[in-house]
Amino acid sequence: MPNDFAQSVKEQTDIVKIIGDYVRLKKAGAQNYTGLCPFHKEKTPSFSVHAGRQFFNCFGCHEHGDVFTFVQKIENVGFSEAVRTVAQKAGIPLPKREFTSPEEAAEHRQRGKLLELHEVATAWFEEQLRSPEGALAREYLTGRGLTADGIAKFRIGFAPDSYRALGERLQSLADQETLRLSGLFSWKEQEDGSPGRGVPGEPPRRGMGPLYARFRKRIMFPIANEAGRVIAFTARTLETGEKAGPKYLNSPETPLYSKSHVLFNLDKARQAIRQDGGAVLVEGQMDCISVFLAGIPNVLATSGTAFTESQTRLLRRYATRVIVNFDPDTAGANAAEKSIALLTQEGFEVRVLTLEGGLDPDRYVRDRGARAYVDALRAAPSFQDYLVERARQLFPSRDPKSKTEALNFLLPHIRRIPSRIARDAFAIDAAQALGIDSALVRAELKEAAAKRRDSISSHAQPLTHAERILLQAFSAPRSSEAYIVAEGAAHQHEPDFASMRSDVREMVEQLRARPDGADPLAAITDPAHRQLLAELFLSIHDTEPEPDEVDAAVLAIRRQGIEHEQRQLRADLERAERAGHADDILRLTRAIQNATVRLREVDWS
Ligand SMILES: [Zn+2]
Fold first, then answer.
1. Are residues 187 and 200 in contact, defined by beta-carbon separation less than 8 angstroms?
2. Backbone angles phi, psi at 284, to 5 degrees
């Protein structure tokens, strides 16, 4: 952006007005305004803005500069973006943007279009929630303690039970391709890959083509980017029973939205997080909304998955401390462990809150009030204490073997801590809590570091990628797509699964046999296997693999199994030939042929 434009923007704006959007300012002199500094935490104002000289200064943290510096800092953007923001706030028309290539220009146009579609859709869903058809949805939201204010603040809406209505609202705004890219629609494809005829059982309509609304009869929670623009939705079903589909349905990945790069509520929470330096991390959108509306402004949600690396980087720009408050169930505990691993590695100060009574944050805030929740946050233990406790729960027995397992569970976490001093302190604490000689622990740590592995005395063969995916899938909740796909394959291809590597096969069997909702680690009886699984959980970031990853893993496992079987059969055949046992030769030859056919089937799937 040309500098004379910046100059002219600066001349036409009043810094007091712009900063006044972010900070409550009080007049403190002829030209002087003061307020609480947005860049550091304080109770008495040391932040002042000078109207005559058009600058700001903080006597506490020494931040200072002009209107652009302020916007750059508070919005976390570069200079040109700050100029653009200030110009927009002041109503100054922007010069035409120049692009380096036609592709870039097209991409920019497309993004703009997609943002517009999301904005119009959000307003439309809000409208539907207020309509008579939205009565059930309103009832549900009221039941969860949401007021009209809260609903408006988070722009919660309702997608009616219609395949067509949203499309009719949006079709004049964008072409089919853009509508398709928005993630707001689904479509049926013919077997030959050509677009289908739309809603099953309905004749195709002109204009709307084969697209139909992805979200129907669901409560719509908009997901916004850092700047507060809606880029995706999470939709909760109002239907019960078999036809309900998943409880929560999310927008797919689109040019605007990538699940692992977004933190829910960052747009509303980031200023509070920056001032405080700390963030509360919860799993679900409803948890986040309840906690936020209860007056705890620095809360974010990961949208039901463990933290990802991109999310860590995003958070890094605002916070140095995090309190992780996931659901107390197994999936929540696993997600918490994975998140802890990532956050400590990035040098965050991490604490972990487990709410008493097995409550999730939403329930807790509603049942016991905001004050009690704040107290619980204050009392949350450090991640070290949390992990030691978790190790003791997973490996409760006090014999030396169990102690070693508990230590093995902790070692990867200890090793991830960037500071050597903090690492040693954790090792000593862990040793004390587990009743192990701390000199031994430190020696093991050193040895493990030297050998570049996370575990002591573990001789297990490393897992292949496919085995990892499969174990992950079978560890997922029964109702998850990953589990369903894996279970279906195990059922259908029993003989191929039977020739899987024995320890993995045993783990898979035990995971499949566990009661619904039970802790996968608790289902594994062999401690070495449990350790293998614990290490797997710690090394992955996403809770569940995608269904097509599971499909690919199943194929790889089947291939490995059959190949293993073939090798054995060939060895047997060789022996039978040497011994001249005609019956065995015939039987084994047939078996090898049969395996070859099965292998070909795998290759063709
Ligand atoms: Zn300051």
1. no
2. -105, 155
